[in-house]
Amino acid sequence: MTNNHGLAGTMPDRSPTPGTRTDVPQGQPSRITRRAALGLFTLPFAGIRQVAATSRLPRIVCLDDGLAETLLMLGVRPVAIADRKVWEDWVVEPALPPEVADIGTLLEPNLEFLQQLKPDLILSSPYLDGIKPLLGRVAPVTTIGIYGENGQPYRNAVEATRKLARLVGKEAEGEALIEATEASLARVGRELAPFAARPLYIVSFMDQRNVRVYGRMSLFQDVFERIGIRNAWTAETNYWGFSTVGIDGLATVDNARLAYLEPLPAGAGGTLIESPVWNAMPFVRSRSIMRLPPVLMFGALPAAARFARLLAEAMTAHG
């Protein structure tokens, strides 16, 4: 069971820090109906059996985890991704099948191994435009962006879902995923209506003194707007939808709650509970702190649904 009072007590040490990612053996043919898809979000993703992949799908190497999690929910298993450890630490759900290869780091993929995989298509994001010519020597590259200057990642994720669905011939599954996500967020909004009055910070710890706090242009902000939660962070954010601030920068809203995402950097827990600055924060004094399991902060629709579900569980348990 998750301890939603984490930072008021002892916190586990976790070494990874938030990444900068934005980031096929085939089974029997299968189609997912809209009615069935609506049931996908009634349980945690861990309990979902993903749609079986059809028999003649393209061999896809996917270099964006938001696109990869969408493919998996459509029933398409990529041949490879970059940096499997990032997925295991930060994405978590949907589970990455063991058959999916790891081609190395995001900005320096193993091109020789990539050639050996013989992909039909490489899916990339605008973040990787600098290495697109290298990737193009191996296979055609399709770039799909979710995070951009328009600052609407949820809407972009819907469009990306439709683009991916057309690429792999899964249009019905794509529409079902969009509809299921909307239904899930609407349900969470109803559950959290009693908690809507108090604003909420969402942060990832960078180290013992600094956090990423998510606001405008982030996926989390878009989810907040759909579930009726007010974000305590209203300052400007960067391209990815977060600001990096010292812990004392979170003292601007007296009645705010704080939810922090795992994993934590090594040593952060012990240092924080001994820090006078941390202990002076209004949300620490009022014990209004919640711990959330990892969520891909630069994800797509599956990450949005996971974030909403985990937040609802934490807030209802905290009271």
Give a structural overview.
The protein has 319 residues and is of the alpha/beta class. Helices cover 35% and strands 12% of the residues. The protein has helices at residues 34-38, 65-74, 84-91, 111-117, 132-136, 153-167, 171-191, 219-227, 268-273, 276-279, 282-285, 301-318, and strands at residues 60-62, 80-81, 101-102, 121-124, 141-143, 200-205, 210-214, 242-246, 257-261, 289-292. Strands 3-2-1-4-5 form a five-stranded parallel beta sheet. Strands 8-7-6-9-10 form a five-stranded mixed beta sheet, with helices on one face. Helix 2 packs across helix 6, helix 6 runs antiparallel to helix 7 and helix 7 (171-191) packs parallel to helix 12 (301-318). The longest helix has 21 residues, at 171-191.
Characterize this entry briefly:
By secondary structure, the protein is of the alpha/beta class. It is built from twelve helices and ten strands.
- Terminal CA distance: 16 Å
Profile the largest sheet.
5 strands, parallel
Helix/strand/pairing category: alpha/beta
DSSP, total strands: 10
Reconstruct the topology from this structure.
Blueprint: H1 34-38, E1 60-62, H2 65-74, E2 80-81, H3 84-91, E3 101-102, H4 111-117, E4 121-124, H5 132-136, E5 141-143, H6 153-167, H7 171-191, E6 200-205, E7 210-214, H8 219-227, E8 242-246, E9 257-261, H9 268-273, H10 276-279, H11 282-285, E10 289-292, H12 301-318
Parallel strand pairs: 1-2, 1-4, 2-3, 4-5, 6-9, 9-10
Antiparallel strand pairs: 6-7, 7-8
Task: Please supply descriptive tags for the structure shown above.
alpha/beta; disordered N terminus; 5-stranded mixed β-sheet; globular; 12 helices; 319 residues
